Protein 1
Amino acid sequence: MSKMRAMLLESLAPIETNPLKLREIDRHQIKRPNEILMKIDACGVCRSQLHGIEGDWKKYGIPPALPTVPGHEIVGTVIETGPKVTKFKVGQRAGISPLYGSCRECDYCRVGKEHLCDLAEVTGESLLGGYAEYITITEDFATIVPDSMESAYAAPLFCAGVTAYKAVMASEPERGKKTGIFGVGGVGHMAVEFAKINGCRVIGFARSKSHLDVAKKVGADNVIEYSSNQGEFLSSLKKEEGLLDSAIVFAPSESVTDAAINSVKKGGTIVLATFGNIPSFDVTQEKTVRGTLIGSRKDMADVVRIAAENDLKVIYKTFPLEQANQVLMQLKQSKIEARAVLIP
């Protein structure tokens, strides 16, 4: 059987110990008639992989088994198709999001919310992950990537992009609405843009100047440094902007979530796009707190279309596949400006 290079996680450990090992493993082969085989061109690096590798998310069952190949925002070139494939031809490019598959029959799947399916399969929580040279997937769960997009540009759209888009839509964006983005990194910088496309006034919040600069670069109307002293932070916000109509939280921190809830006016909406607890909630203010999770296949296709139509800025830097440990270390240290992309 043909082999392929992959960064394999054999045991959970701090990223400082270089737990991802470059291995030669069996190359994936088409097993179902509706599958495509892709040669991976690019795979974005998501913070969720860091949490999975280091064992932070064991309580959520992530990863479900070892060994595994991480990576769930993938763009590649189709090199082989199953006999029943009609959507793709050899030579076309396709993208894969965290949503690798679903049952297609439950109440969620029937209404186009297959990402909520109890049997949904997640890319990169098995040996089918993007930190490798090849991957297979059924044609229905792969998205066509237009010729106008470079693979390294498109890859972050397939997790960061759809997560940002879905979170913005959950905030019920409207022209002139004041929306705060808490955490302007790999996901947050795209949320700034999706909110601007929808006509919102967007304020970016981050602890570091580099991330505030990213928010400005992609069109935030204002940026405010986040302070762990909530009183000081809310005072700065009220002085510069007043209270927000909505807030979207990408920073996995209870204190940030609490500050976001308190930064929104009565009757406003707070969207949580990360794991975390809600420290306190005053029901008398009639605020809505809403969770959001990646997106459906339609959401994914919409993100690719909107990115192409609006020349969406995706801020990324490429690295060789073999440097996955070092890249995740930089991510842990907040040294990645926005998104890192691995190139096999």
Protein 2
Amino acid sequence: MTPINLSKELRKQALDEIKKYFLEKREEEIGQLAAELLLDVMIEKVGAAIYNQGIRDAHTFMSEKIEDLYGLEK
């Protein structure tokens, strides 16, 4: 399977959110390296499942739209 890669901007945003979560919810400050390692593990362990759910959702959406097209037949 092709690895999941985030753009620089999206990766930075995710890292900022991880650090914010730890600070606000756990009252812990974590450093950049800890946030990067956590993000990498999350992507490795659940990234494919999230991606696959997106594919299933897109398939369902497109299937419904195709069915709508059949309704336009005369």
Protein 3
Amino acid sequence: MMDGPTDAASIIWYLAVLVLVGSSLLYRRIAWRSAIGMAAAWVAVFAIILTIVSYRNGIASIAHRVSGDILGRPRQNADGNALRVALAEDGHYWVDGTVDGAPTRFLIDSGATFTALSGAAATASGLQMDTRRIPVTIETANGQVQAARSMVSSMQVGPIKMDDLPVVVSPAFGKTNVLGMNFLSRLKSWRVEEGEMVLEP
């Protein structure tokens, strides 16, 4: 008669031990999974940071292009000391710069001999016309126009800065300002690369 209760108690005791051991193993298993998951998360974080640091210029370039598309600005970005300018929808390369500190938008035109400023851009930058010299005859899409000569003390586009750059000025240019060969020829190089105009000082 004593065997029955004793066997039942033993079974209960063994079951309790198994539950405790199983619970301990389950806890350890969950803990290990958490540790592995945390380690994987940190590896992913460091990988993302390394990728951002390694490709920061490319990421900045993409961000600038996207913002330019959204806001309608000319797409340009500095690449070290060089300037990369994306092709605009009109098939031309446009760049933002300054003329003696005044913001000015330029069309890059390797077919133009001179850097040319509109009357409005010249007025905004405070340029003085050289009335002692004969005006220059410029060929435009609308025919020949007479342009006055002037000198820009400081012109900058992106990271590229030039001092004492001769320019021509005429109201006949309308609102268009042109970066011509007398600007481009002072650069180390200029070229088209993967659809972008690359200017290197």
Protein 4
Amino acid sequence: MRPYVLGVTGASAQPLAERALQLLLNRGRTVHLVLSRGAHEVFRAEQGLRIPVDPLTQQMFWREHLGVTHGELICHRWNDQSACIASGSFRSKAMVIVPCSMGTVGRINAGLASDLIERSADVHLKEGRPLLIVPREMPFSLIHLRNLTALAEAGASIAAPIPAWYTQPKSLDEMVTFMVVRIFDGLEEDLAPLDRWTGPLL
């Protein structure tokens, strides 16, 4: 199977990115991971995690932190626009940006590529490959909505991380897993068992 590109920006929902990476690797998938500069800051501010910038050191960090030995993980610096995923000739299954800040949404919509995440997103759009954006903002301004609409019109899928209560979650951890699994449903990737809606109990 072709690899996934996983972009993580500086929006406040890093546990979604961690769970997505963990579940993808546990499924034996290949993941090219890019943390924006802002994502490093949010990890440190909200979770006390200092993520190594060096790609090889970062790979070892994630393996240990998430407790995963499966799959293949390739980490990239946020400003390395010579990376393989910056080229249209590099073939991937899809790119997922989780969480995606509104600044990143706006720059992708404008066709800017100030870092590797934005460049890779631009590549996925121009090559007609799946690009799934998980925006983390509330409420959305009209500017946010117009940018998201424009990206949807350009071929991206928008999957806001909205929880559900019909699964009767017992913890925040269960809710995070639910949202991540639902996000990847859009790519026909069954990441983990899920209590799906089957209709009201009689």
